[in-house]
Amino acid sequence: MKRIHIVLISALLIIFTGCATVPVASMEDDALAKRFVADPDRSLIYLYRNEFFGAAFSMPVTIDGQVAGKTIPFSFFKWDVPPGEHVIKSFAENESSLRVVTKPGKSHFVRQEIKMGVWQPRSQLYEVGEEQGVSAINECKLVTSDVFDAVKRSRLPAELKSEPSGSQKIPSSPEKKEVASIPDGKPVSEQPPAVASIPEKKVQPERVRRNIPPSGYTKEYAPVVSSLISGAFESALDYTDKNYQKSLVKDGPKQDKYLKLLERGKIALTARKYDQCIADLQEAEKRFLTIEGTISITEGLGSLVTDDTVQEYEPEIHEKLMIPAYLVLAYLGKGDFDGARVERNKTINKIHQYIEEKPERAYLENPFARFLSAVVYEMEGKYDDARIEYRKMKRDDEIDRLEKKKEKTTDLIIFVDVGMAPQKYEEKWGPTSVPAGMATVTLGFAYAGYNSMESSVADCTIKIYDRPMGRTHTLYDIEKTIFEQYERNKSTMISKLVARMTSKVAAQIAAQMAAEKALENIPFASLFAKTIISEASKQWIAAEQADLRSWITLPRQIQYVRIDELTPGDHTIVVEYNGGSQVHKVRMEEGKISVAYFSVAR
Amino acid sequence: MKPLILRQPFLLLIIASIICIGCAPSIKYSIADDETVTGSDWSARDLKEVSEYMTDSIGKAKFIGTRRYIEDAPRWMLARDLRNDTDEHVNTRTIMEKIRTKLINSGTAKFVDDQAVSDILEQLKLQQSGLFDNAAVAKVGKLVGAKLILRGTISSIRKRTERTDIIYYNITLQIVNIETGEILWTDEKEIQRLTHKSLFR
Questions:
Q1: Considering only CA atoms, which of B40, B51, B87 is closest in space to residue B193?
Q2: Mapping DSSP to helix (H, G, I), strand (E, B) and coil, where does residue B152 land?
Q3: Which of A339, A375, A446, A520 could disulfide-link to A546, CB 3.0 to 4.6 Å?
Q4: Cis peptide upstream of residue A431 (ω within 30 degrees of 0)
């Protein structure tokens, strides 16, 4: 049973340890590192740790006296070194040292094996063959190294490649002293900074762009995205409608119903079907408000035994803030200013609730929602309120404009949704069988990452009839917010994964113990039952899916342009972008502000 | 021997009734005011409370009892809408019309219909077209202009957290003399409530 505990705790802590204390490289770099190709005049050393055991502990590693970083379960380093002799050391309860003699153009593989210690695990380094090394590394994640980083080096210009990567050196004599401070029974992450003079890197949100085929929810919306990109808004609306109808049928994905209403509402706005947009977004918003801050026990239990896709979709904060802002645009498009004013009030209340009352969420600031609210205040003649919002956005240019404004002018503000928001993709680990005493449990998990969508439009040229009026500027970078929010949500996601994995492991052990007890008197029956349970567990764990739901019809960015002092009357606006264009007519009333909205999904 | 259920027809009737009642939709025609409040949003109870309060207040207004008002019997009209400065799509026209109904029925005020003008003009035009008996048609130039306008604003302050919603409504009405712009009467009604959601849904 003790071993089961170790396996369980290791399984739980691997994720915490991995994400909390070690800078894991991007997927692109990880894939690049797994090519195993060395420059002809250099050598590659791969050091890997491919086991759960000791998952609570990250272990410092040095190469040639320089701190490279720490390993965690299922991680590896890739060092680009000059050919010759290199000394690698691993510090745990013990110190393990290995001398590796590298050859030009060759890859060398070092395994960091983890062993049972008294207070914490011990480690042992030894060189392994290419076949074993490659196979092990393929199941590990690349950790960014502070020295001889092969990935960083590969990006350097040729003339700089001969320079070794710089890092602080651990002097040879105090090395022992520093290591001596490690084994006090605490995980490395809890050690005082002395050990580690090992630098902790803050992982910045990275905008990943890879060609990942859509799956799950993103696959369901692939035709919508294609139609949007090609500018076929009616067709996109048809697809979103069909997807929504699917969620209503018996045994359909009812948990996605309101997210699908959001998608349809957004596309309805793009297709200028304002009434439908208003109905859809308001219905979805009402439901999201109802479930906000509440828990469904049945769905919660369901997600523990299966995955998060069984839970009703609850939008992220950046999505919640976009709903009333788009409703403002829909009401303005419909010509219902009273409706727009109500939605503006709602927008301001939500910004207050979600952002201003929680300063730690400042990164979720939605300049589009705030700017649009300020514009509606201006339309209403409430210049002081507009000024307050512009001030909160630090838009001195807009404040100056308001200060200088002597009389009402006929102004046009054009908002353009550009590109597509990042989409989620599945990252899966396992199923992997782990011996636990007399039993075997299957471990595995699936989670979602974000992938940036390709975009060919940087900005748009605005023309009134044929007269160029200017280019659009970025007002709100939704993609950046999404990646940043994802980084910050990681700890919650990890907690959920750990809870799910624990419950699944517990269920497997319980089933095996029950089978053993029930069939103890029948020869081989218990063994047979355990095999069946083990196979079923593999299927069960393999069936786990990442929750790929998000409001995917949101844009990558919202851009805008303000054109002041136009002549009243009908105007034809032309939005030009990277070989395409869209046209829309607006009626400008004297002394009033008009708002136009476009969507360029390319 | 017959089973118990067949020996006791009364028991059979009770079971059948339970099944039928259990399956039938539940419809209730008499609803208490408090039952119309299901959350912090504007409700039928608020509509009733505001219209009753405002009608009562207008009835007690000083200018209503003056000799001049009684003699002139000026016509009233509603502003197009009560200005909605809340974060909800409240049907403000209903509030105004409910107050108008109560004022007319209590004999406090006579209103001209602000929304019927185009229909009236259409009808007058038709009746003056020569197709109708001249003696029986409505005469032109008899429309009565309003001298007083009933207008106002509904605004709200909302504080919401994930499971708590505090709402404060303020409804302000005024009666304005169209000729002079003078406010003859004004009053306000405040409504506030706190709603708290259960953790489990």
A1: B40
A2: strand
A3: A446
A4: yes
Q: Are A77 and A47 in contact (CB under 8 A)?
A: yes
The pLDDT tens digits for A28-76 are: 788 888 888 888 889 999 999 988 777 667 888 999 888 888 888 889 9
User: Does the CB of A190 have a partner CB in chain B at under 8 Å?
Assistant: no
The answer to whether B201 contacts A296, with C-beta atoms less than 8 Å apart, is: yes
Banded pLDDT at A154 (limits 50, 70, 90): low
Q: Which amino acid is at A390?
A: Y
Instruction: Using CA coordinates, name the residue in chain B closest to A331.
Output: B89
A491 touches chain B (CB under 8 A): no
Looking at residues A317-324, what average pLDDT do you find? Answer: 97
pLDDT digits (tens, 9 = 90+) for A424-438: 999 888 788 887 666
CA B54, CA B62: separation in Å to the nearest integer? 14
Put simply, the answer to whether A342 touches B89 (Cβ < 8 Å) is yes
Out of A291, A339, A343, the one facing B201 most closely (by C-beta) is A291
- List residues in chain B touching A: CB distance below 8 A: 81, 84-89, 156, 158-163, 197-201
Q: Give residue A374's Cα distance to chain centre.
A: 31
Q: How far is B30 from chain A (nearest CA, A)?
A: 26
Determine if the pTM surpasses 0.90: no
| Complex-level ipTM | 0.78
* A334 touching B (Cβ < 8 Å): no
Structure tokens at B28: 């209730």
The total of other beta-carbon atoms located within 10 Å of residue B67's CB is 7
At residue A555, what are phi and psi to the nearest 5 degrees? -85, 170
**Distance between CA A366 and CA A476 in Å, rounded?**
7
* pLDDT (mean) for B47-60: 96
Distance set, CA A32 to CA A37, A61, A154, A155, A264 (Å)? 9, 22, 10, 11, 39
* Tokens read off for A387: 């000024």
How many beta-carbon pairs below 8 A join chains A and B?
47
pLDDT digits (tens, 9 = 90+) for A486-510: 988 888 888 888 888 888 888 888 8
E-strand ranges in A95-170 read 95-102, 107-115, 122-128, 141-142
Say if the Cβ atoms of A295 and B199 lie within 8 Å. yes
